[in-house]
Design brief:
Blueprint (H helix, E strand, L loop, with lengths): L1 H15 L2 E2 L5 H7 L8 H21 L7 E8 L10 H14 L5 E8 L5 H13 L4 E6 L4 H13 L1 E10 L4 E10 L9 E8 L7 H14 L7 E7 L3 E3 L5 H18 L28
Parallel strand pairs: 2-3, 2-7, 3-4, 7-8
Antiparallel strand pairs: 1-8, 5-6, 8-9
Helix pairs in contact: 1-3, 2-7, 3-4, 6-7
Amino acid sequence: MQKDALVQCIVQAVLLGFQTGSDCNLVSQLRNLKCNGGTAMRDAIVLGTSLLLEMRKFHIDRGMPNIWNFLHIVITDGEDTSSKSSQQQLQAVMGMVGQNIPPQLLKTIYIGVDLGYNSQAERELRQLASYGGQGAELKSITLDQMDQLFSRIVLSLRQRVSVQSLNISTNNASFGMTRIQTRPELNVQINRYLILLTIDVSGSMDGQRHNKVVNAVNQITGTLGPEDLVCGIVFNTDCKLLSKLNVQQWNREYYASQQQQTKSQPQIQQQYQRPQQKQVPVTDKSCCCVIF
């Protein structure tokens, strides 16, 4: 019975856009993507969070509420420039996560790459991390630190090292002993992971930054087992599920929109409109474990 419910949960996840750890092609899809456009980060986070909530509800309905640990990683190098979702809408969705997914089952990591003097971008990311409560944190890094950060994340998916020291003193001497224990950082009884990667593919991420992200995703997916699940969401001016995305179509749609924009620019009196992007549903209800 439990095995049947597990299979149903995996099938449902695949229908939503997740891939199993043993059959994952996120890395190859990312390599074929071209970085361009603006940054609709809030829209992408709302879309991804909605997926997590839907999976959580499905797990509960099947009587398996603690079947997976959830890990959500958001990677960007700048502030939001293109989202339709407001900060208030995003906060409401994150509140729903806090109500429905226990903090010991969910970790959210916001990674700001080369933010430098972009204080607006860092303020935005800190605000987003605050919406996630104790299960969310911001990592502001340079591009050179990305490999090291993801190595630590991969390590901590499976275990955490805790060190305990004991000092014993006598009249003549002192002795020190150290005990090292390893244990999973998330729920100890759960060894399956449902991982959501929300990745910035705007124009500023082109080149070395995108290559580093691809390598980081490769580190993550390379550790997954057949019952682990992973999903990628990419965002620039728009946001889409990477696992359901035809990469050539993504690139064609962007360049077509740019050509349309160029044609409309000489017509001063014609109001400019961005290419229509998918509206992410947001409910009105109030609505996310430390990895290392």
